[in-house]
Design goal:
Elements (H helix, E strand, L loop, with lengths): L2 H9 L5 E5 L8 E2 L9 E5 L16 E4 L3 H9 L3 E5 L2 H12 L8 E2 L4 E2 L4 E2 L4 E2 L4 E2 L4 E2 L4 E2 L4 E2 L4 E2 L4 E2 L4 E2 L3 E3 L4 E2 L4 E5 L3 E4 L2 E4 L5 E4 L4 E2 L4 E4 L4 E4 L4 E2 L4 E2 L4 E2 L4 E2 L4 E2 L4 E2 L4 E2 L4 E2 L4 E2 L4 E2 L4 E2 L8 E3 L4 E2 H11 L2 H13 L1
Parallel strand pairs: 2-3, 3-4, 4-5, 6-9, 7-10, 8-11, 9-12, 10-13, 11-14, 12-15, 13-16, 14-17, 15-18, 16-19, 17-22, 18-23, 19-24, 22-25, 23-26, 24-27, 25-28, 26-29, 27-30, 28-31, 29-32, 30-33, 31-34, 32-35, 33-36, 35-37
Antiparallel strand pairs: 1-5, 20-21, 37-38
């Protein structure tokens, strides 16, 4: 695709196009990172990216960037075509969608799929090899259910969802529209519910379900448990990375983003727009307010107010954590001085 055609695409997109400087209207065949790009490839550069120091070494034919005078001036001196937008990352995502076409799965049901006679399958669905669909399950239109996935009984799936290979969706699960479930994830498995009695454990039956709203994306090897009664709930637009555990009865708001290895204990309530970095742990029944940001390995053991930025274990405000962590390595020396003072 000609660079000028890509520019037209970006103008129509959501990155807030500002201007363009084309030195040679080449065909753009591919995209790459700034340090790896070669001729006929496009890349992007954000204002705070450390790769801007290596700008003179890039072989990219075009770069999407911000309206930064230093970067734009350097690109002009290097005769590298540049597309200036407010949000280069969004523009680059739109370019990737254009350059790399997704695989189109033809509608149809593979001969090896096992589908209960009471299940209902909508129009234009692709049901791959060795898929199982249980009794009284209803699947809407234009869904792609890829090889080896199992969807048990009494499941409701809306329209335009992609369920990647080897996923398991348990009974009483609802999945709305335009969701993506990546490989090997399990939705609706039994919650971890046991009652101690006389030194042993009595199992609490887990008869609830899971409700996942539209535009949710779930990474690989995630587990979302169902509760004893009621539902585990994930609201629309939320994105989960790989290897995430969502406990039974958890409520997650809209447009949250959780990085890998986040663990949320049963009954926790997570607000809208919450960002949890890698390996964050949330205690059971804790309430996390809207737009909270928790840094990596943070341990959230109590309720957190709206808009807080927290770090550490136990979690505290990020500024307090930064001050405290700077003191940690000095503790042996401080302790030694205290002992010396005690002796005086």
């Amino acid at each position: 695709m000609l660079l000028s055609d890509l520019v037209d695409l970006i103008k129509k997109g959501n990155s807030n196009f500002i201007s363009v400087n084309i030195f040679e209207d080449l065909n753009i065949d591919d995209a790459a990172s700034l340090d790896a790009a070669v001729k006929h490839q496009i890349s992007f550069l954000e204002e705070n990216n450390i790769l801007k120091e290596k700008l003179e070494q890039t072989k990219a034919s075009a770069i999407i960037t911000t309206n930064n005078d230093e970067i734009v001036s350097a690109l002009k001196k290097l005769n590298i075509s540049n597309i200036i937008v407010k949000n280069p990352r969004i523009a680059f995502a739109e370019v990737l969608d254009c350059l790399y076409k997704t695989i189109n799965f033809k509608p149809g049901i593979h001969a090896s799929a096992v589908i209960d006679k009471t299940a209902i399958i909508g129009a234009d669905c692709h049901i791959g090899p060795n898929v199982y669909i249980g009794e009284n399950t209803v699947i809407g239109d234009n869904n792609h259910i890829l090889p080896g996935s199992s969807i048990l009984g009494n499941v409701r799936i809306g329209n335009n969802n992609i369920i990647h290979p080897n996923c398991v969706i348990y009974e009483n699960t609802t999945l709305k529209n335009n969701c993506v479930i990546n490989s090997n994830s399990v939705i609706g498995s039994e919650g971890f519910g046991f009652i101690p009695k006389n030194g042993k454990w009595v199992k609490m039956p887990q008869k609830g379900g899971v409700k996942i709203m539209s535009f949710v994306e779930i990474g690989t090897n995630c587990c979302i448990d169902r509760p004893a009664v009621g539902f585990t709930f994930i609201d629309e637009g939320t994105k989960l990375d790989n290897l995430i555990q969502i406990g039974h009865g958890v409520k997650i708001g809209k447009n949250c983003a959780f990085a890998a290895q986040v663990g949320i204990a049963g009954g926790a309530n997570i607000g809208d727009g919450v960002i949890l970095a890698g390996q964050v742990g949330v205690n059971n029944r804790v309430k996390v307010g809207n737009n909270v940001i928790a840094s990596s390995k943070c341990g959230i053991h109590c309720d957190i107010e709206d808009g807080k930025v927290i770090s550490g274990f136990p979690a505290m405000e990020n500024k307090s954590w930064l001050r405290s962590s700077s003191i940690f390595k000095k503790l042996p020396e401080l302790a030694k001085k205290l002992r010396q003072l005690d002796k005086q």
